[in-house]
Each structure stands twice: as structure tokens, then as C-alpha cells.
Amino acid sequence: MTDAHDTWTAPVAEGPLDADIRVPGSKSITNRAYVLAALASAPTRVRTPLDSRDARLMLGAIYALGAHSQGSIGGYLVHPLGPGRVHPEETVRVELGNAGTVARFTPALAALGTGPALFDGDEAIRRRPIGPLLKALRGLGARIDDDRREAPPFTVHGEGGLRGGKVDLDSSASSQFLSALLLAGPSFQQGVTVRLVGGAVPSEPHIAMTSEMLRRFGATVDREGAEFHVAPTRLSCPEYVVEPDLSTAAPFVAAAVATGGTVRIAGWPQRTTQPGDWLRSLLPVLGATAELDAGGLTVSGSGTIPGVELDLHDVGELTPVIAALLCLAEGPSIISGVAHLRGHETDRLTALATELSSLGADVRETEDGLRITPAPLHGGKFHTYDDHRLVMAAAVLGLRVEGVEVENPETVGKTFPGFAEAWTSMLG
Q: Where does the chain bind 3-phosphoshikimate (predicted)?
């Protein structure tokens, strides 16, 4: 294991790649499946889930709240939340780490249970926005103490159920606020009707993912413009198979483009709600090709990367890898629509501008994105700010730049514990 002072030297590609890659299960799907399984009326076998820090934190959180799980062949058998605690007056602790899905998806589960639950985690999670969600949960009948911090640590007092009903929600800082209410909505006494207020919700694909998974578990999800409705119902899904994580596949897709080579990514689904699938439409813009068949996705780069203007509002999590790739382009680029990235694991816009510029690129922050002007690049330390996507961005840059020293590479274990080994193997 490494600590925050250790580094990994990102390997340089000696020429065009020709590689086959398999990425782990989707974090977004895995953690939604665990939440829905905890709320179901019977056990759910979750197959091919992601096994990473965030996924383990989610399993630990639902266990603390009364949903036991056990390892099985190719995944976990997750049992529903129990009827109540033996000692409901005792406070249980829900460990959040720096996992946004855990911090946002599980407070509603605590409100459905009995007794107090304290939510807290790393220092970074205390800086990530959650106030609008806590406000909405209070509007639906939850009792929450946060000393007006609107951030962890906070305590949810479960009283055996939640009224639910209609509520206004500002989800402009994170689509996870809306997903949190929709996922728990079938278990509220009146279901839930969420009316969106404030700015546009980022990452529409993640809202579609939540809705589709709810339907797989037997829920009814209706949408009319800015209003969502989920009726109360008993959830059930005996088996759920998790797709490969297409956002985690992004650096491998970028590797084909950066080297002018070919990378085949196994298991890429024919149809999916994952934001990462947007990469297929991006590739022709970058002068590359993408062929999808039953075996997966084959990406081939041309060796030339043009400058582009991209609105990544709906696929913001791809920004770090794409920004790194565009530093290797032949002309300037603009990324817009991603102001919400300032509230992720770190302020990703500031971090990217700082680190990419430190290696020679001219990367400047705008109000809602980045302006990238390619320039001669050189090696140096690339700080990652405990952000897994920054490790992946540094790896992409290292394909063409010698001496990129990636700080704290172990932080990539949030979504892909074996990333460095898989990356090195890809290069042969």
C-alpha cells in the first residue's frame, strides 16, 4: 500500500496500442442496486458488482442500518432492512468516507428505520453539498439534527417510517439529491412527488439510470417536465446484474485516441443509461472510430486529436480524462457546463487547471468549465487531491509525457483498485 506521499510513474506508450481490457462493475449501478436491495421485500442477489472502497462503504452503511449481506458466487446476496433494532435508543454510526452516493442515498433509509443514526466521514465529505437533500427529507417528515451545518456530521432519527408526499428540491449541485429521494420513494407511506426548483440538474443519464433501476425492482416512476412521482410499492428483484463501469473505461478509450492505436473494451453494453456511453458519440469528433458488437467496444485512434468545444453538463464525471486528452490536441479546446464539478471529491476544475498547467499546458478555469490551450508538456508531480478521476487523467497524460509522477495512486481504489496494474498491462 502507498500513502499520500508515494507516487506512481505513469508509463509512456512506446507506440500505438493494441490491447484488450475488461473494467470492473459500475459504481453508480452497484450502489443503487445495494440501496434498492435493502429496501426490497425479499433478498436480492447482486451479481458482478464493483468491489471498491465506495462499494464497501455502501455495504457497510446499509449493514449499520439493518440490511445484512453475504458474499456469494460473483457478488453479494443482500437482505432487506430488518424490522427494527434490538436497542433502538443506541446511536449507530454510518461511515461515509468520501463517498457521495453513500452520504446522499442512505439518510432516507435511516429515516425509515428506528433510532438515531450518525452520519460522518472524511474531512472532504464535510465540504461536499448535501443541504438541499436534508431540507427535502425534513419536508417529507424526517427528523434530522445537523446544527445548521447542512453537511456531515448529522444525525437522522428513525421513527419507523416516513410520510413522504410532495416536496420541492434544488438538485442543481448534484443529481444524487434527486436520485436519493426517488430510490427511497417507494418505501414512503405516500410515495414521493419531487418538483425540481433552482438550476438545471446535472447528469441527466444518472437520473435515467435511477428511474430504470427502480422499474427493474417493480416501482412506477412518472415524469412530467420538472416533476417526478414514485408511487408507494413493495420492491422486488431476485437477481440484478451490474454492467461494467463505462466512466472507468474512459481512460482506456482515451488511450486509443492518444496513441493512435486500438483498444477493445469487453462487455460494453448494447444499451445502457450510463453517462460513459456518451464516449461513443465523442470519438468521431476526436478523429477516432468506435465499433460496438456483442463482444464489446473497439476504439481506434487516428493519431491526430483536433481541438474541440464540448458541453459536458450531462457527463461531467468524464471531464478529468477528457481534459487531459485535450492537452494532447493540435488546437485549443473549451469544456463547458460543468460548474457542479467544484463540489465533487475535490474542486475538480481548480485541480485540473492547476495540475495540467503545472506540466506545461495552458489550462484556465472559466465560470463553468475549462479553456485548454495545448503547449509543450514535461514531467513532474501530478497531485490527485484524493480524487480517483485525477489519477486516471494523469495516466492518460503520461502516455505521451515522460516522467508524470502521480501522487497517491491508491486513491483510485474508490472505483478501480487494480487500475495501475491494468494500465501497465495494457501497455504490454
A: 27-28, 32, 174-176, 203, 317, 344
